[in-house]
Amino acid sequence: MDYKNLKYITNTGADRGLCKKGCGRQDRQLNTYDWLADVPGNAESTDLVEVQFKNTRKGYYHNVNHLDLKKGDVVAVEANPGHDIGVVTLTGRLVKQQIKKANLKSADDIKRIYRIARQTDMEKYYEAKKREHDTMIRSRKIAKDLGLQMKIGDVEYQGDGNKAIFYYIADERVDFRQLIKDLAATFHVRIEMKQIGARQEAGRIGGTGPCGRELCCATWMKNFVSVSTNAARFQDISLNPQKLAGMCAKLKCCLNYEVDDYIEAGRKMPSKEIVLQTQDADYFVFKTDILAGQVTYSTDKHQAVNLETISAQRALQIIEMNKHGEKPLSLTDDNSQKQQERPTDLLAGESITRFDRNKKKKKSKSRKPQQDGAKVRENHSKKGENKSMKDEERQPHGSQQKEI
Asked: What's the whole-model pTM score?
């Protein structure tokens, strides 16, 4: 085993503990910002500590030995059986709030922290982690041979290597009793099967969403809420499966982020089924801008004809007028009849020959340098002739006779 990258750090601070380069994403996934870290006495206010393991698995433990733990410390914690290795991600008062979000059923779920991980603990930890990928491939083959309709998405070994958690996905109920026997006989560890959904699998694998950022399920989301197409309808999003589906092939979790605001703003909008009646025509809802509070009406129920955009307040006002048998002159606020829009003449007040004048000026400017160039050439030719005449006069008669 290569121990060159293995470091044993004993100094205090966030770097204390055992670490190794390339130890994965567990130190930053589902990270919680501790905004109370600078408050004096925050760490001593409670002995509860949040510890994160591989990917999205977290646990909460009692610091019974009163260790000086900081965020980033690698610790050995109580497990059943043996011990597990994890990274401290949160200490202080915020841990109680995280426990409420985790919905722990009993106080027995909160176990103890044994110690800061030693070098021998980390050696067992890395040996167990090396076996995970091979175990996943072999377990998939065993499940396929048994004819089980399931997919083993990930395998996680406990820090001491005595237990392995198999995360699987299945649409229907699966009888994996024989599978557990075969896995225990093959790998000689205690087997735990844990069913996860498609969203949880995407969170464990990770990736980048269409927004360009890392997946929410892989960074901060832990509890998944069901998402329906009604969330897209409330926000006037086109029901295109390719755009609504995320990396997990399910509806995007972010559809639920702003749906409450859209529902609240949609209560102030007029119903899409109500027809506005004016003296010139009847208007049907063509499209709505919920956040801007504007509605666009058309005189045709199915096509965009004579579009008119008004505020939601004005639309509700016209609806009340129609209930009392009144019809405004138009949809606009000033109750003035809508004038027919005439095509605007872009050349009104402009001369037709305005471009010709510019061309004449350009031509006159371009001719001047040509004339100047002709004069320069004439001067150069005259100078050349004069020079040749002077050279002939300077030559002696003898040289001329030899040339003849």
From this structure: 0.61
